[in-house]
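Sat 14:20. Reprocessing the chain from the morning session after the first attempt stalled halfway. Input below, unchanged.
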Amino acid sequence: QVQLVESGGGLVQAGGSLRLSCAFSGRTFGLYSMGWFRQVPGKEREFVGYITRLDDAYYAESVKGRFTISRDNTKKTVYLQMNSLKPENTADYYCAAKSQYDSIRYPEYEYWGQGTQDTVSS
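Finished this time. Tokens:
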């Protein structure tokens, strides 16, 4: 069983930055693709980006150039660096783990963190 624990969320002003961390435990980290998603109340969970087992990152168009995903296989942790934040980026952010192929679709992820609330004030 995989456990994911997120940290680093909070309140930031527009234009600022946040760095989220997601600590992985329970299985072999290197076998999993790691995704980040976000959700606001009343809306479907939205893809932010993922990083593959081979360290290739892929992003949603809306965050490309501002957000960066990285992973540290020694620490079994994945990061989401968010820069130039906008009020519309306010959401609960979730990390997720997926084995086998990579995906932008949240139903295909097997394990989820508890989420971290991130608020960007204008």
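The chain has a mean pLDDT of 96.
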